[in-house]
Amino acid sequence: MDELRRHIEKIVSLTEDEFIAVKSFFTEKQFKKHRFLIQEGGNATNEFFILKGLVKLYYTNAEGKDHILQFAAEDWWVTDYNAFFNQAAATLNLDCLEDTTVLSISFDGRERLCAEFPKMQYFFLKKSNSGYVALQRRILSLLDGTAAERYAQFRLLYPGLVNRVPKTLLAAYLGVSRETLSRLA
Amino acid sequence: MDELRRHIEKIVSLTEDEFIAVKSFFTEKQFKKHRFLIQEGGNATNEFFILKGLVKLYYTNAEGKDHILQFAAEDWWVTDYNAFFNQAAATLNLDCLEDTTVLSISFDGRERLCAEFPKMQYFFLKKSNSGYVALQRRILSLLDGTAAERYAQFRLLYPGLVNRVPKTLLAAYLGVSRETLSRLA
DNA sequence: GGCCTGATGTGATACAGGTCACAATAAATA
DNA sequence: TATTTATTGTGACCTGTATCACATCAGGCC
Questions:
Q1: Can you tell me which residues the record assigns to a coiled coil (chains A, B) (predicted)?
Q2: At what angle do helices A118-144 and A107-116 cross, to 10 degrees?
Q3: Which whole-number Å values give the CA distances from B81 to A16, A128, B75, B86, B96, in the listed order?
């Protein structure tokens, strides 16, 4: 739970009492490797903060091909945000690459948390803003970069993930075939 | 200015007095076609709300090739968000495809506006959240779709822009060459 | 230990889309 | 009105990646 506090305090500071109140909105949960946190067609009523482990968020297209939107390891937030914010059915899948421990917060919980603590609303705003910028960067690398450049960029940006994620999945994140990535590596 | 109020009130409601206070944070500005609102290397101290007109936000790579991150017409917000949020030098360009009127707000202004009106912070949070989801969707269409599919999707999503933006620029947005787009149309 | 499944490498071949080149309008601007 | 400067189309050719097909090797599990 301390991870959450350290994480939040990178942006806003909290008193002891405030943090106790904040953390009451979260529930700790454990998932084994291969378990789903969200499945297409199901609900996505929770957002997850990863305490330990590694998950992948992905879309499976009509031909059964997966495209990975995000990996999330320690200190990352993840959910099917479209489904979460709009309280709609999930179109994405989220499952564990490793045994994973998360803190879970419901949509309503998050709304109440933000209403009660403007600081936390500020925190989520800053997070959302930097997430937006990160996605813009990724779009640019898809528009501008070659497969090799995107791979190099990924290694720079997420050195810790490169040797933790199988190449097949890295390929599904980068938008390259497994075989092509293998020829680059 | 009424456009701004209508736009905000889709998410939070404001009293007359509140709106008067809110709008004092904005300045109206006019730009002619081809004028730059932001240039690479310059500053991006302002965020713009488009009242009238059309702009493009783009990145120019080392070979001089442009990649369009965003078009923004009436009721859209736009800036180089990386530079804006981090108070850093711009890496993107923003210029006018048509004569354009905007409401401009500075970074500091926006921070004070959010601090003073939690409602407005909530507004910006919701906007950022849906922006994030929209970029995820675009990433998926870059990962999954063929050029023709992306074009079809764009027409569905932004029917009003298709005949307002030259095909050359649409191609730079979709990540296809001008020639290929022409053969699809 | 032995078996199965997932991860990775590599060759052969196919194709979507890029690049280059030229032409014809349409639209700004002097 | 005249003169550039954008915009769009289209042919010819090239190339980065996808696909398909095997082969190998490591790790988890019975």
A1: none
A2: 120
A3: 33, 12, 17, 8, 17
Distance in angstroms, CA of A158 to C1' of C8?
A: 21
The answer as to whether B107 is a domain residue is yes
Q: Which residue is nearest to nucleotide D17 (CA to C1')?
A: A180
A151 part of a folded domain = no
With b for 16 or more beta-carbon neighbours within 10 A and e for fewer, the A45-77 pattern comes to bbbbbbbebbbbbbbeeeeeebbbbbbbbeeeb
Give the separation between CA A40 and CA A95, rounded to whole angstroms. Answer: 11
Domain that holds residue A67: 2-107
Please check whether residue B73 lies inside any domain of the structure. Answer: yes
* pLDDT tens string A27-84: 999 999 999 999 999 999 999 999 999 999 999 998 889 999 999 999 999 999 999 9
The dihedrals phi and psi of A48, each to the nearest 5 degrees, come to -120, 140
Structural domains counted in chain A: 1
Q: Is the CB of B148 under 7 A from strand C?
A: yes
